[in-house]
Design a protein that fits this description.
Chain A has helices at residues 5-32, 48-57, 64-76, 90-125, 130-144, 147-161, 180-218, 221-228, 233-262, 265-270, 276-285, 289-317; strands at 82-83, 88-89. Chain A is globular. By secondary structure, chain A is mainly α. Chain A has a two-stranded antiparallel ribbon with strand order 1-2. The two termini of chain A are 20 Å apart. Chain A is built from 12 helices and 2 strands, in the order αααββααααααααα. Chain B is α+β, with helices and mostly antiparallel strands and 533 residues long. Chain B is globular, with a radius of gyration of 26 Å. Chain B has helices at residues 3-20, 55-65, 117-127, 165-170, 177-180, 185-188, 194-197, 243-251, 263-271, 300-308, 312-319, 349-358, 388-403, 415-424, 443-446, 460-471, 475-492; strands spanning 34-39, 70-72, 83-85, 88-93, 99-104, 143-150, 153-158, 205-211, 215-220, 234-239, 257-258, 275-290, 325-326, 371-372, 375-376, 378-384, 407-413, 429-435, 495-508, 511-512, 529-530. In chain B, the strands form 6 sheets. In chain B, strands 11, 12, 13, 16, 17, 18 and 19 form a 7-stranded mixed beta sheet that branches. Chain B has a 4-stranded mixed beta sheet with strand order 1-10-9-8, with helices on one face. In chain B, strands 4-5-7-6 form a 4-stranded antiparallel beta sheet, with helices on one face. In chain B, α10 runs antiparallel to α12. The longest helix of chain B has 18 residues, at 3-20. The chains are: A mainly alpha (327), B alpha+beta (533). At the A-B interface, α2, β2, α4, α6 and α7 of A face α1, β10, α8 and α14 of B.
């Protein structure tokens, strides 16, 4: 297969353009929106001159276009400004929040995919049977349940009622006294509930898409031919039907990637998980403009990357999609 | 393992290692006595001048990590609060009360360097520096100089005598000159993380560990000037933004203290058997602020009728039975200067209706809403959507006012949006809350020129009373002026005062000597101890 370098280059340029449009729109929106953490003073007795002084210090007294040009020039140099709610450079806040989010997101996608594939296969194999009906109802239930509620239910059951797993945070208060392996186990124990909370709706989505696609594929001629050759039911399902049913599932997973970041806000708040979702939530609440822009850019980048990843993965799974359309 | 599988495993391990690493400076010795407390928000900076005036800043920086010159007491019910020695061992006023000489105790910073008069002067210079723009800088307006007399003696000079000289002088913690003076003031706002790397403290605790968005671990400061304190070895503040998660973890025994409980939350935690409740009156009141830019609301007689139409006792009994009480003034009744003879206007919807009818309002179309000049008496009552209690209160108030023929439409608005609307004067009425401090200064909400006078209320007589208040120099004068201010506000009703809030905290039964008060839930954290098994 010959790689389409030109096409990839065009795609990359298009992605950069999309990101620029997104951050520009967000810059304008957050600066025009009411409320500004930098100049909102907690003490009602503080005089107006104090607010004006803070505006000068943070460069907010200048006209919006001037601020935009300065911000863009700094952003290109990798200087994202100072987060007012964290009182740290935005780059530091993002780089501290990214690993926990990636860990949570990757775990959720992995667990969700495995569970979703398993239940989708089972539902398709037992189509219209009791197992299929139960799995379909379960997936509807999981997709329609708010994540924060699912998280709180998990805490109530697994932490409060049974006391099996920690209810929040990345690590236990005394984790620093544990050995390296002990710390990793401690982290894994803290990861289970938030990852499951995020993974279950993903699993439900994967399961429903896969089941529906498998049922389509199972009715096609090449499946009949495979059956006619005497292949077992499981071989037909796994070797012939599954590879043909996977592309839309992978496409959906690629699009789920940014959702795992932005959609994890509720999960990260409930479980006090110090990731990007929570940073974005706090930034929005506190009108922390540089941080809002940076987290939006991260999210937008993941949307673009997720879409590209999905396209590449689908192309790998089904090379027919790479063929040029007839002229 | 397949290639994608191997890649995933590698990425997973890297993330695991990235988030699982031990922070620098972590202790390895097992703690003897620890209290674990949730915080809804993280600390923003270890430097008070940059950290803003949030509750976390007050609770952690001002009381636990850093010390003030004097320690304000919460004994303000029958007289102005008294001050106990803090870093100051003793203090003497000049005969004209325009200077105050403070003798420092033999205290040390956590690195062993003595706390000196130079620290006090450095702190004042930083607090008043325009480059830093500290939020509370206005409290230092009457201080003209801070003179170093000798290493342990410092003299404050004032431009005029005022009732708030001592609290103004005491506003803010003392900062370390030897550790922080190497960074020019112009750089403080640009390099807020610098202070974390150069942190020395003089309070009862040291900052053992601060993992942003996760936890703040405080450890006993062996150099604290009261060697018998603190009694706890460690205090762990865990950042838990979600209230329900806090409650669930408290029920599971993972937390020792929960602040500001609603009635239902208190019942839930008390029922677990793990907690005892502590109640104390805050210096906060909730109110409806009327926008006097609206032609009808500019008339004090209409505002009075609106107050008569609100059943504040029903509000209190419904929202927080046994916990709140009806407010009558911007000076809460738990504060010494409040006039105890001042009574809230009664709830009397019939009288409210009669007074409105006397002003020309009639229900001509029989829809239950009064009209004048062809326009219904309709107004929006906005509040911040983040407070379920206030949202419930607006619904209840709307129902009450309907009985008097007033069509009130509740609106729950995003907090920042609400503040922006208030700043612009774009509202009819707002349900909000204010707290007051030792200064008893309420002019910020009612004086004509005040920035937070969102309703554009203006009364020259009241403005003159605020001037009198600023000139008052002793307790009797202050109390007398405050009574007149309260009476004038009561007469003109720019606000309908709703309730004074009593705070309710849950304290783990394993903790001893916990005494929260209106100044801070953690006012005496250094004296807390745990029950020994």
């Amino acid at each position: 297969m010959k790689p389409d370098v030109r096409g990839l280059g065009k795609r990359l340029l298009g992605s950069i353009l999309v990101l620029w449009i997104v951050v520009t729109a967000v810059f304008a929106a957050v600066h025009l929106a009411p409320g500004d953490a930098r100049t909102r003073l907690d003490d009602p007795r503080a005089p107006e001159s104090q607010r004006t002084r803070l505006q000068e210090i943070y460069g907010l007294a200048e006209p919006l276009p001037v601020r935009y040009v300065r911000w863009l020039a700094a952003a290109v140099r990798g200087e994202w400004g100072l987060s007012i709610t964290h009182q740290r450079p935005v780059g530091q806040v993002i780089s501290a929040a990214l690993p926990p989010t990636l860990l949570l997101g990757a775990s959720a996608i992995a667990v969700g995919t495995v569970l979703g594939l398993g239940s989708g296969l089972l539902a398709a194999a037992r189509a219209h049977g009791a197992a299929d009906r139960i799995l379909r109802w379960l997936s509807v239930l999981l997709l329609s349940t708010p994540t924060f509620w699912l998280g709180l239910l998990a805490v109530l059951l697994f932490s409060v009622h049974w006391g099996w797993l920690p209810a929040s945070h990345l690590r236990s208060p005394d984790a620093e006294r544990l050995s390296g392996g002990g710390r990793a186990i401690d982290l894994l124990r803290h990861l289970i509930l938030p990852a499951l909370t995020l993974a279950l709706p993903i699993a439900a989505g994967v399961s429903r898409t896969l089941r529906s696609r498998l049922l389509d594929v199972l009715g096609q001629d090449f499946i009949l031919a495979a059956r006619a050759r005497g292949l077992s039911k499981s071989a037909v399902l796994l070797r012939h039907a599954l590879p043909n049913a996977l592309p839309p599932v992978v496409q959906n997973l690629g699009l789920d990637l940014p959702l795992v970041v932005s959609g994890s806000i509720a999960t990260e708040v409930v479980f006090a998980w110090p990731g990007l979702g929570r940073v974005a939530f706090d930034a929005l609440q506190g009108r922390d403009l540089p941080l809002v822009i940076a987290t939006t850019l991260m999210s937008a980048t993941l949307v673009v990357a997720g879409t590209m990843f999905a396209d590449v993965a689908v192309a790998l799974l089904d090379p027919r999609t790479l063929r040029e359309a007839p002229r | 393992m397949s290639r994608p599988g191997a890649c995933f495993a590698l990425a997973f391990t890297v993330c695991l290692a990235g988030v699982g690493c031990t922070p620098k400076g972590a202790s390895t010795s097992p703690p003897a006595s620890v209290a674990t407390i949730p915080l809804s928000a993280d600390l923003t900076s270890v430097n008070e001048l940059l950290a803003g005036g949030s509750q976390v800043t007050g609770d952690l920086l001002r009381r636990q990590l850093f010390a003030t010159l004097l320690e304000e007491q919460a004994d303000f019910a029958s007289h102005p609060p008294t001050f106990a020695p803090g870093l100051a061992e003793s203090w003497t006023w000049s005969p004209d009360r325009l200077s105050l000489e403070i003798h420092l105790r033999n205290a040390r910073w956590s690195d062993g360097v003595p706390v000196s008069a130079e620290d006090v002067r450095f702190t004042w210079r930083a607090q008043t520096s325009p480059a830093i723009a500290w939020e509370q800088a206005f409290s230092k307006e009457t201080i003209t100089d801070v003179e170093v007399v000798d290493p342990r003696t410092v003299r404050f000079h004032f431009s005029r005598v005022s009732f708030t000289q001592l609290p103004d002088l005491n506003e803010g913690v003392i900062l370390p000159h030897h550790a922080w003076s190497s960074l020019p003031f112009e750089e403080w706002r640009k390099q807020p993380t610098w202070f974390r790397d150069h942190l020395v403290t003089n309070g009862p605790f040291l900052l053992e560990r601060w993992t942003p968005q996760q936890e703040i671990a405080l450890a006993r400061n062996p150099n604290y000037f009261r060697p018998e304190l603190p009694k706890l070895d460690r205090v762990l503040f865990r950042i838990l933004p979600d209230r329900e998660s806090q409650l669930l973890q408290a029920q599971a025994g993972g937390l020792d203290y929960i602040e500001g409980l609603t009635v239902r939350e208190a019942q839930r935690l008390e029922g677990s058997g793990l907690f005892a409740l502590q109640r104390y009156w805050s210096r906060q009141y909730n109110y409806i602020g009327w926008n006097t830019r609206r032609p009808w609301l500019a008339d004090p007689r209409i505002r009075r009728a609106l107050t008569l139409a609100t059943d504040r006792q029903e509000l209190v009994d419904t929202l927080a039975p046994g916990l709140y009480r009806v407010a009558s003034s911007p000076i809460p009744s738990s504060v010494w200067a409040h006039d105890p003879t001042l009574r809230p206007l009664p709830f009397d919807p019939a009288l409210a209706r009669r007074e409105l009818e006397a002003l020309g309002f009639r229900d001509l179309d029989g829809d239950g809403v009064l009209e004048r000049d062809g326009r219904p008496l309709r107004l929006e009552l906005a509040t911040n959507a983040s407070s379920p209690l206030r949202v419930d209160a607006t619904a209840l108030l709307a129902r009450q006012m309907r009985r008097a023929g007033i069509d009130v439409r509740p609106a729950a608005v995003d907090f920042n949006l609400l503040l922006a609307r208030l700043d612009r004067g774009d509202f009819d009425a707002v349900l909000f809350a204010w707290g007051i401090d030792t200064s008893l200064d309420v002019s910020f909400a009612f004086e004509t020129k005040a920035q937070q006078n969102w309703g554009a209320f203006s009364d020259p007589a009241l403005d003159a009373l605020f001037e009198d208040f600023r000139q008052a120099t002793n307790d009797a004068q202050v109390q007398e002026v405050v009574h007149r201010i309260e009476a004038r506000i009561h007469q003109l009703q720019p606000y309908t005062f709703l309730w004074e809030a009593q705070r309710q905290d849950a304290v783990s039964r394993r903790l001893l000597d916990v005494r929260p008060n209106a100044l801070s839930a953690f006012a005496n954290l250094r004296e807390w101890s745990v029950v020994r098994p």
